[in-house]
Amino acid sequence: MKRSFLFSRLAALVLAGATTHCVAQQNTSRPNIVIIYMDDMGYGDVAAYGGIDYITPNIDKLTATGMRFTNFYSAQPICSASRAAILTGCYPNRIGIHDALFPNSNIGLSDQEETIASMLKKRGYFTGIVGKWHLGDAQKFLPLQHGFDYYFGLPYSNDMWPVDYDGKPFNDTTKWRGRFPPLPVIEGNYPIRYVHTMQDQSMLTTWYTQKAVSFISQHKHQPFFLYLAHSMVHVPLAVSDKFKGKSKQGLFGDVMMEIDWSVGEVMKVLKENGLEKNTLFIFTADNGPWLVFGNHAGSAGGLREGKGTTWDGGQKEPAIMSWPGVIPAGTVCNKLAANIDILPTLATITGAPLPSRKIDGIDFLSLLKGDENANPRDHLYYYINKNSLEAVRQGPWKLVLPHRYPSFVGGVPGKDAWPGKARTDSTDLALYDLRRDPGERYDVKEQNPDVVKRLQKLVEQAREDLGDDRTNRPGKNRRSPGKL
């Protein structure tokens, strides 16, 4: 009798605990947040966006359970600038970050700027980054000094190492590649090992995945933010033995299949720990494909040009977001949104205070909830280099300003890890209707002078606020980066 009583009491306690756990998973005020940020993945590189000759079943599952965006943009089409944008909610030229920072850079992300991580810490989140940082490699610029509790990964791009395109050591110090230091893998604030060979590179996706899974398992009892910034599919491409030769698109396809496996491992650990229903999962990329690398580059999915240009092939990205019970499953959002909008959206979701300094992002939670009448982002500016304004989009209209750019149309494509050659091209003032012409092929400014006039007013507003190097406008509201 006594034993039966004890068993009944134990069962009741277990049931009560299970009920409490279930209620906690339904609490959407502080959901777990996972952002997977790809490197150099183009608009056409995921099966749901047209990728072929390899399979991405786990990413496809995210699409089936969540929302696929068709007009989601990176704030700039290059590494460091894009990462500054997603983490701070600012156009990167507002905060002094531009291009791709090299090793031993004397600038980096300022400690005066708030990041998603520092913002969420105010709401009790444990914050971690696994993968590529690329916002300054001096210790004062590293993630632990910008709101992250945990860091494992590379401080910059995986091609910034003293190794040639064929994987052999590059020892000529009269050239920039030969002056690169060894490529460090950092945990916390200090290197724990170095990437010396292509075999080491082939382990990056596996290492990142293992650390991401461990991070989730260790911090499942409190709300967490995980920023998993993969080094792939940036060149040099490398894949572990478990996916080598598995696709029909060569090494690039193999790498995409391993990335999909990584996404699946993260999804699996969330499910195993009962966290999937209370986790907002965001999958997107920093910029378009580096087309000069030919068959080692991805696909812009029919959009014009790629990385390093402000044509849509350089800045329009796949974006898939899943949050069961909040985001309607299997939906498509055609409204304009950008990576700078993620920070203010997370602030609204979690009740975290917005940064005290001006940001450029706009809360798009209404889009995530499936509000068909919502249109939170009115327009988007296309900046590049240090502070050059090259275009503005409002609704379906994109006004392109006169500029020169590296073109891959008519250039020489690269092959098997070796780059080809781009050529320099130029454009005059042009207007494109992206509803009918997503490839930006047909200039319709003569037929739509009223639209041109309206968008030119937005251009003037940007030049007043942020400036424009092409017209020698400094802008009134730019801030300095962090400096050594």
UniProtKB/TrEMBL annotation:
CDD domains: GALNS_like. Residues 460-484 are annotated as: Disordered. Residues 31-351 form the Sulfatase N-terminal domain. Residues 473-484 have a biased composition (Basic residues). InterPro entries: Alkaline_phosphatase_core_sf, Sulfatase, Sulfatase_CS, Sulfatase_N. Residues 460-472 have a biased composition (Basic and acidic residues). Residues 1-24 form the signal peptide. It comes from the Bacteria. Keywords: Calcium, Hydrolase, Metal-binding, Signal. Coiled coil: none annotated. Belongs to the sulfatase family. This is Sulfatase.
